[in-house]
Write a structure and sequence with these properties.
Blueprint (H helix, E strand, L loop, with lengths): L3 E3 L7 E6 L4 E8 L3 E9 L5 H5 L7 E5 L3 E2 L18 E3 L2 E2 L2 E3 L7 H7 L3 E4 L3 H11 L2 E7 L7 H9 L10 H4 L5 E3 L7 E6 L5 H9 L2 E6 L5 H5 L3 E6 L10 H12 L4 E4 L1 H10 L2 E18 L4 E14 L6 E2 L6 E8 L5 E6 L4 E4 L14 H14 L13
Parallel strand pairs: 4-5, 5-7, 6-8, 7-10, 13-14, 13-15, 15-16, 16-22
Antiparallel strand pairs: 1-9, 2-3, 2-11, 3-10, 4-11, 12-14, 17-18, 17-20, 19-20, 20-21, 21-22
Catalytic activity: hydrogencarbonate + L-glutamine + 2 ATP + H2O = carbamoyl phosphate + L-glutamate + 2 ADP + phosphate + 2 H(+); L-glutamine + H2O = L-glutamate + NH4(+)
InterPro entries: Anth_synth/Amidotransfase (IPR050472), CarbamoylP_synth_ssu (IPR006274), CarbamoylP_synth_ssu_N (IPR002474), CarbP_synth_ssu_N_sf (IPR036480), Class_I_gatase-like (IPR029062), CPSase_GATase1 (IPR035686), GATASE (IPR017926)
Organism: Microbacterium soli
Length: 397
């Protein structure tokens, strides 16, 4: 294994970041050169940049890292959450000049170039983060190499003509196109139908470790396609885009709930669960992205530090149990974000279904919410009437 990889030290081209409000930040090209357009958002994790970059949920977004030093540990194939880097563009302050990890197989710079990701470095990322926090996430463009020399008005025109995240359905861009099956790696429970809306590999690995033969289905799968797997449960994954633009997946989920199949949804799957119950979703000002978000599990009273990546949220009554507008009985908000009181989880009382807005697989950490996978396993076992459900150390949280 390579212990130290030097990053190419050729002269760096100039680059500029342009926000849709006309704000400009000058810096140096990082990764591929050219133009990148997308919604500029910030991620607060101090580690785990590889998992962030390869998370399909970041499709369409230019990701700003608030941690100043990025790239120190390089990239390796083992930690990838998918087969490629998905971010639309990348913003860092101080990229590593040398990779220092025995697990590194290439530098981050080389990986960005390989996957054609246009980035910018050397800007005041703290000032940019503060601007997004005060003004909200907005469209932006990174222009580097020859494109950095484009007329400022032309650069701004390209930014403001780029599509907004609100109203966008990006599931088809990140989902599998054919069914993929991952065999159970523990005592087998049965088949789990997983709708891939932008799922991460670590999520699939966790589901297989529960004892499920995991059938990963395309985002276009019908209820008949789900039933064809002979499922003991259904899982909706994380993913990019606006949940209000995913009516087809919501309609399929309502059929799942009508059939009383055990359901677990995370992130985008939480938002679609909310809409299936009859609730509305809305766009957050700047969203939650990072691996340090505090959430209260109202079932246990425990506070968890969790991994997030969402720019939309479910609008639901927070203080008491309420009736599902679509007739699925009593529902409660099971988890609350402690930074801003955003709904972070839903639990139905009269059907076997629950969801959370964050990522319990938490690659690359923390693992406070990992018990949710076991909670779903026990829900499935209870639905099957096996009497095998049990409480492990993780469930006791």
């Amino acid at each position: 294994m390579i212990g130290s990889i030097s990053v190419a030290q050729s002269p760096q081209a100039s680059a500029v970041l342009v926000l849709e409000d006309g704000t400009r930040y000058s810096g140096r090209a990082y990764g591929a050169t050219g133009t990148a357009l997308g919604e500029v958002v910030f991620a607060t994790g101090m580690s785990g940049y590889q998992e962030t970059l390869t998370d399909p949920s970041y499709a369409g977004q230019i990701v700003l890292q608030t941690a100043p030093h990025i790239g120190n540990t390089g990239m390796n194939h083992e930690d990838n959450e998918s087969g490629r880097i998905w971010v639309a563009g990348y913003i860092v302050r101080d990229p590593a000049r040398r990779v220092s990890s025995w697990r590194a197989e290439e530098s981050l710079d080389d990986a960005l170039v390989r996957d054609g990701i246009v980035g910018i470095s050397g800007i005041d990322t703290r000032a940019l983060t503060r601007r997004i926090r005060s003004e909200g996430a907005m469209r932006g463009g990174i222009f580097s190499g020859p494109d950095a020399g484009l007329d400022a008005d032309e650069q701004l025109r390209r930014v403001v003509e780029a599509p907004e995240m609100a109203g966008r359905n990006l599931s088809a861009a990140v989902s599998v196109t054919e069914v993929r099956v991952i065999p159970a790696t523990a005592e087998r429970i049965g088949n789990l139908a997983v709708l891939d809306l932008g799922i991460k590999q670590s999520t699939l690995d966790n589901l297989a470790r529960l004892g499920f033969d995991v059938h990963v289905l395309p985002q276009s799968a019908s209820f008949a396609d789900i039933l064809a797997t002979d499922p003991v449960g259904v899982f909706y994954s994380n993913g990019p885009g606006d949940p209000s633009a995913s009516d087809d997946q919501v309609a399929v989920l309502r059929q799942v709930l009508d059939a009383r199949l055990p359901y677990f949804g995370i992130c985008f799957g939480n938002q679609l669960f909310g809409r299936a119950l009859g609730l509305q979703t809305y766009k957050l000002a700047f969203g939650h992205r990072g691996i340090n978000q505090p959430v209260l599990d109202r079932t246990t009273g425990q506070v968890e530090i969790t991994a997030h990546n969402h720019g939309f949220a479910v609008d639901a009554p927070r203080e008491e149990t309420f009736d599902s507008p679509n007739g699925y009985g009593a529902v409660e908000v099971s988890h609350i974000g402690l930074n801003d009181q955003v709904v972070e989880g839903l639990r139905a009382h009269d059907i076997p279904a629950f969801s959370v807005q964050y990522h319990p697989e938490a690659a690359a950490g923390p693992h406070d919410a990992h018990y949710l996978f076991a909670r779903f396993r026990d829900l499935v076992l209870s639905s099957l009437g096996t009497g095998q459900e049990h409480t492990s150390e993780g469930d006791a949280k």
